[in-house]
Design a protein that fits this description.
By secondary structure, this protein is mainly alpha-helical. It has 4 helices and no strands.
Length: 96
């Protein structure tokens, strides 16, 4: 086997993981930015509060790849929307 034929499947496998890596990097960056902002807001708070923010953000960063792999999807069907709106006293729109 030539090196080219073994490199092509590896390249395709790496390209398939690009959206996963980009998603994790984006969510991780947002998590760190939120921790920085919250730490700035807690400027005069006790150091324990700021350490808690950073500890939770590090735990979130460690759990981020595992949570990205699991498909978290919220599917709302028309029947669910109608039953929820009836509970809230909202009239459902007429279809057709």
């Amino acid at each position: 086997m030539s090196p080219t034929t073994t490199a092509i499947p590896q390249l395709l496998d790496a390209l398939a993981r690009v959206p996963f890596v980009v998603g994790v990097l984006t969510k991780g960056s947002l998590l760190v930015l939120m921790a920085v902002g919250l730490t700035r807001l807690l400027g005069r708070a006790p150091a324990a509060a700021r350490h808690l923010v950073w500890s939770l953000s590090v735990v979130g960063l460690l759990l981020l790849p595992a949570s990205t792999l699991s498909p978290w999807r919220l599917e709302l069907t028309y029947r669910t929307l109608v039953s929820t709106s009836r509970l809230n006293g909202v009239r459902s729109p007429t279809v057709g």
